Amino acid sequence: xxxxxxxxxxxxxxxxxxxxxxxxxxxxxxxxxxxxxxxxxxxxxxxxxxxxxxxxxxxxxxxxxxxxxxxxxxxxxxxxxxxxxxxxxxxxxxxxxxxxxxxxxxxxxxxxxxxxxxxxxxxxxxxxxxxxxxxxxxxxxxxxxxxxxxxxxxxxxxxxxxxxxxxxxxxxxxxxxxxxxxxxxxxxxxxxxxxxxxxxxxxxxxxxxxxxxxxxxxxxxxxxxxxxxxxxxxxx
Length: 236
What we know:
It is globular and about 60 Å long.
């Protein structure tokens, strides 16, 4: 299904885009695919933007600067800075995610949600000395869907298989429907939290019910999750 047909099928409530346009540092990072959910409100709308980013280089990279652009055809509706890359460093060949919640304020008298047909990114990456790169933690993730299908929870188990305690682990994940299209991304940093050597922490992330309701409406619930976690070592 093409982007145009898919967007038409789900109207203004939710939009998915695979292979969305992005300008990025050649040979470093690139946007593989992106998606966008629109949750309408009475005076403003919440636009949830997600993107899967791939490190296509042979070096560890991080996001230097990044912008998102929301458009209706050729008309630019809104631009802004992306909040951050999750996790904040990507090893060669690794994937990470961008996710932001944008408040879209309507024009006076406009009662319709925005018609967003394109989400694109301008991203600039830079390489990192390996001393500052994140160290990967063993991560397993699964989806828990309520029997009535009205709620979805992402459960991530992060194991510290090292021989030392690690602190402030960062977790990131993406949700995918059959066919491999990403429809959601999330993550967090467990600030001031440590994982003792050999231990495992379990984290649960609830997907916003408004977004789950939209997925149910057009019959494309996520069936797979991809997750990763890392920590940083203090460098004096």
